Amino acid sequence: MKLLKSKTDQELIRAYINGDESGLKVLIDRYKTKIYTSIFVRVKDEFLAEDIFQETFIKVINTIKTGRYNEEGKFLPWVIRIAHNMVIDHFRKEKRGPTVINGDGYDIFEVLNFADDDAESKLVRSQVDVDLKKLIQLLPDDQKEVLIMRHFCDMSFKDIAEITEVSINTALGRMRYALSNLRKMIEDHNMTFQFN
């Protein structure tokens, strides 16, 4: 298993195709937080996100096993695209449009317990981050989504652009506006934070 963790996505897929089930397990472990979060920010429901996450990987497994996977070097964007389509299918069945986080007070950060307990999640528990989270909830939805994906899920702007179906420049612009708006709110509330 340790040897597999150093393999590329493509090598892990080949291992899985050749009968090594742990190849897929390593891939799931490698990307579960990013994929789950990409689902959660759209559905805003922990249990529904879990269901769609499971359905996504059933589809991934079926596609790989039937030899139809050919996205060399692009496993994560491919899976996130499948997850995005599963979310759209869910909302079509529900006969309502997909939404992203709004100001209804639901704390998106509860989902971050799904991630490994790293330095960022320890910071989230501090009082400073509790205050910051309250301010983040006041941002416009598109800015909030990019900020969460970038800083709390450690996603690249390329992945964020693909998930949110905008250009990389638009994702970067939303991030700039989010940070600018946060700085202004922090000043307005006489709080002290450091932004890079």
What does this structure look like?
With 196 residues, the chain is an all-alpha fold. The radius of gyration is 18 Å and the shape is elongated. The protein is built from ten helices and no strands. It starts with a helix and ends in an 8-residue tail after the last helix. Helix 4 packs across helix 5 and helix 8 crosses helix 10. The longest helix is centred in the first third of the chain and has 22 residues. It comes from Sphingobacterium tabacisoli.
Features:
196 residues; 10 helices; elongated; single chain; transcription; mainly alpha
What is the share of helical residues? 55-70%
Biggest pleated-sheet summary:
none
Going by helix content, strand content and strand pairing, the class is: mainly alpha
How many strands? 0
Which segments are poorly predicted (pLDDT under 50) over 5 or more consecutive residues? 96-118
Average pLDDT confidence is 76
Give the SSE string: HHHHHHHHHH
- Based on CA atoms alone, the radius of gyration comes out at 18 Å
Strand content: under 5%
Distance between the termini: 37 Å
Give the count of helical stretches: 10
**Shape type:** elongated
Summarize the topology.
Layout: H1 2-5, H2 9-17, H3 22-43, H4 46-65, H5 75-94, H6 119-124, H7 127-136, H8 141-152, H9 157-164, H10 168-188
Brief digest:
The chain has 10 helices and no strands. The protein has helices at 2-5, 9-17, 22-43, 46-65, 75-94, 119-124, 127-136, 141-152, 157-164, 168-188.
